[in-house]
Sequence to fold (339 residues):
Amino acid sequence: MAKMYYEKDCDLNRLNGKKIAIVGYGSQGHAHALNLRDSGCDVIVGLREGGKSWPVAVKDGFEVMPVAEATKAADIIMILINDEKQADMYKKDIAPYLTAGKAIAFAHGFNIRYKQIVPPADVDVFMAAPKGPGHTVRSQFVAGKGVPCLVAVEQDASGSCMDIALAYIAGIGGARAGILETTMHEETETDLFGEQTVLCGGVVDLMKCGFETLVEAGYAPENAYFECIHEMKLIVDLINKGGVAAMNYSISDTAEYGEYVSGPRVLPYEQTKANMRAVLSDIQDGTFAGKWIAENKNGRTFFNSKREQLAKHPMEIVGKELREKMLWKNDADLDSASN
Fold:
């Protein structure tokens, strides 16, 4: 079993006298900065000059400065901008000022795993990765709770990197829920695999296929949306609380029987696993990372075309119209929910 840590294993005092620079003030950045400050830590925010997040961070009461200046001033630099932007920013604004004894941290291991960022040997390198979006990291903290986190030490130059990492996670509230020890290598590969085959790639294509099948058979698009997309959250919430058994307990026996007889018809088990193994192989050998890095260097033509194509899909159009007509509350602007 992987090792777990909780509040009793973390000492926030390990952050006393240390200045923490949060680089980026989006979904994760605003949550880390606010939670750490509320935990009594000394926090500054490093941003690109002229960026839209600068006035937001200032409004929230932080000292904001360019990334290079924040790196010079801080003892711990947490990078929370998009994966594809980290390497260039690191080389330009962090690496020249990353002196011995400092620590650099990440919430995802992509750039370390694929060697887009290679820190010097005299700094600590760790990962503090909440397993939830930033607005949830913040709202759970405010409610006195926390989001489970992963912790990993990639480079222990100081001899106390794990203690610092655990203190950092306690500061953002993760120790209230539980901290799972892993490696940046393993986190990166399992995270990419889960996103591509199940959580994002798999689920989106499954919902899209279900929606299209019902509409093509003559059923109302609104009904198709409710049955194949809207109810997905209800099902996932049950699984999140108590596993598949909790879902099966809560649904009808008819639905559970359908799960057993029709699930394998939709996703032939051995063929699906073979396809998943191929995806995992591309992640492990760097094929996927290479394609994503090249995509960003070449104008994101494929990425942008797929995003535009999805926006025009009837599933998205019908869903937007339905949500606007219903009385449930949308989380319309999650990244700006600072408090």
